[in-house]
């Protein structure tokens, strides 16, 4: 089967540059983008009911840009001053650099891992005296909280937003050669929007172990898994799959 159409379950890149565009040009395929999930804010009234005190934290663990946005949003809504002494521990350098939207980067203590939970845990273990706050979605991946607990790292969860399925009714169908997913919630959204979905010859691509597990749990066939030793990125894994056809 020749790959002609790919649907990526993320927003279209706004800067006009993406390795997906390179795939289109190199292999003469059509890549569409459609966000399968959306974020809804938890307001200050809801957050207060959790009885989490942001001011008690001496350090913040940031796992995504969405977490960054919602942390500073809730602080503004609740008029909680963000101390200049607050330390930031980020899942990746990209998330750390994103903090510049809210703080003066060079004047803060900022640490980051290299995109994996285990790498971040190594960094956090060097700072066990801190009281960490972990901003999360209501339906979050339990891997990081579980490892924080296992490593006896003092932290509190701050549920600041909800991730829900997007309305995909405008798609009419998902008649693509490849569907690309980056979280279990994307798989949930597919099945909620298209309960009669039959995979048939459609290839499913997933990024990360939890997404791959969600594909398996949904009784779907996983054809493209990333990252792997031959493909550290999603686009490279898709390219390898195209070349095998």
Level of helix content?
Answer: 25-40%
The mean pLDDT is 93
* CATH classification, class level of the largest domain: Alpha Beta
Along the chain, the helix and strand elements come as: EHEEHEHEHEHEHEEHEHEH
The count of strands amounts to: 11
**CATH architecture name of the largest domain:** 3-Layer(aba) Sandwich
Count of discrete structural domains = 2
Count of helix runs: 9
**What is the beta-strand fraction?**
15-25%
- Ranges with pLDDT <50 over ≥5 residues? none
**Distance from first to last alpha carbon:** 6 Å
Class of secondary structure makeup:
alpha/beta
Our Rg estimate from Cα atoms comes to: 20 Å
The CATH topology of the largest domain is Rossmann fold
Largest pleated sheet: 6 strands, mixed
Q: Would you write up a description of this structure?
A:
There is one protein chain. With 245 residues, this protein is an alpha/beta fold. The protein folds into two domains: 111 residues, Rossmann fold; 123 residues, Rossmann fold. The chain contains nine helices and eleven strands. The strands form two sheets. A six-stranded mixed sheet has the order 3-8-7-4-5-6. Strands 2-1-9-10-11 form a five-stranded parallel sheet, sandwiched between helices. Helix 7 runs parallel beside helix 8. The longest helix is centred in the first third of the chain and has 13 residues. The chain is elongated, with a radius of gyration of 20 Å. 27% of the residues are buried. The mean pLDDT is 93.
């Amino acid at each position: 089967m020749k790959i002609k159409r790919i649907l990526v379950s993320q927003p279209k890149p706004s800067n006009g540059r993406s390795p997906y565009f390179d795939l289109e040009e190199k292999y003469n395929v059509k890549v569409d983008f459609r966000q399968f999930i959306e974020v809804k804010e938890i307001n200050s009234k809801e957050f207060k009911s959790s009885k989490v005190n942001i001011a008690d934290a001496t350090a913040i663990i940031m796992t995504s840009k969405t977490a960054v946005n919602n942390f500073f949003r809730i602080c503004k809504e609740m008029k909680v001053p963000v101390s200049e002494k607050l330390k930031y521990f980020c899942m990746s350098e990209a998330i750390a650099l994103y903090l510049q939207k809210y703080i003066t980067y060079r004047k803060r203590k900022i640490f980051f891992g290299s995109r994996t939970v285990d790498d971040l845990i190594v960094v956090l273990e060097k700072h066990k005296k801190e009281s960490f706050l972990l901003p999360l979605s209501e339906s979050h991946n339990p891997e990081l909280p579980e490892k924080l607990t296992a490593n006896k790292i003092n932290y509190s969860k701050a549920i600041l937003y909800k991730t829900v399925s997007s309305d995909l009714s405008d798609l009419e169908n998902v008649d693509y050669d490849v569907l690309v997913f980056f979280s279990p919630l994307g798989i949930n959204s597919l099945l909620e929007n298209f309960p009669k979905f039959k995979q048939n010859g459609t290839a499913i691509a997933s990024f990360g172990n939890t997404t791959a597990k969600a594909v398996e749990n949904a009784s779907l066939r996983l054809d493209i898994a990333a990252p792997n030793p031959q493909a550290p990125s999603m686009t490279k894994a898709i390219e390898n799959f195209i070349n095998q056809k």
